[in-house]
Amino acid sequence: MSIRYWLMKSEPGCYSIDDLKRDKKTAWTGVRNYQARNFMRDDMKVGDMVLFYHSNSDPAGVAGVAKVCATAHEDETAWDHNDDHYDPKSTPANPIWVNVDIAFVEKLPQFVSLPEMKAEPELRGMMVLQKGSRLSIQPVTAPQFKWVLRMGGI
DNA sequence: GCCAACGTTGGC
DNA sequence: GCCAACGTTGGC
């Protein structure tokens, strides 16, 4: 099975590409959406490549590249009462939420903004460009991934 | 800060 | 199982 490509959203005020660069890698905890969880649990494999997307920022867009460095495992923040993403439905005996780990690869020489991506005919159909696209983890095709990297100066 | 789009919850 | 109400996301 060849590697897959993904887009993962993060609010830079919460966790940015610079934070990932500093940390080298991070556990992608806190996802509380079943569709996004299922992508992590069922489809994401070590070596898969990730567009690191800054959402809710000015401008929003792709800031860097990461790769999956650990497959899905139990998201322990779900049963931490003090965590923002605490979910009483999930327990160690009956875990609901999982997370992958991702590692820093590089920061794009040029940030690729959402308006720039919308203007690219090659990227038409990309999930993040669709109206109302709120999913925080999205599949990306290989050509879309490569095109965004090219736009970002790689 | 506004608001449209979406997901989830809960009454029936 | 329907659907209204609500909370959240995220672009603008």
- The rough form would be described as globular
Q: Quaternary state, please?
A: single chain
Amount of helix: 10-25%
- Quote the CATH topology: ph1033 like fold
Task: Please write the CATH class name.
Answer: Alpha Beta
Question: How many beta-strand runs?
Answer: 6
Total of helices:
4
Average pLDDT, to the nearest integer? 95
**Poorly predicted parts:** none
So, the CATH homologous superfamily? ph1033 like domains
Number of domains: 1
CATH architecture: Roll
What's this, in brief?
The chain has 154 residues and is an alpha+beta fold. It has helices at residues 17-23, 34-43, 114-118, 142-151; strands at 5-10, 25-27, 49-54, 61-74, 98-113, 137-140. It is 21% helix and 32% strand.
Key terms for this structure?
32% strand; 4 helices; DNA-binding; ph1033 like fold; single chain; 21% helix; 154 residues; alpha+beta
Describe the structure.
- The chain has 154 residues and is α+β, with helices and mostly antiparallel strands.
- The protein has a single domain, classed as ph1033 like domains (ph1033 like fold).
- Helices cover 21% and strands 32% of the residues.
- Strand 3 and strand 4 form a beta hairpin.
- It is globular.
- The structure holds a DNA duplex (12 and 12 nucleotides).
Please outline the helices and strands.
Elements: E1 5-10, H1 17-23, E2 25-27, H2 34-43, E3 49-54, E4 61-74, E5 98-113, H3 114-118, E6 137-140, H4 142-151
Parallel strand pairs: 1-3
Antiparallel strand pairs: 1-6, 2-5, 3-4, 4-5
The structure holds a DNA duplex (12 and 12 nucleotides).
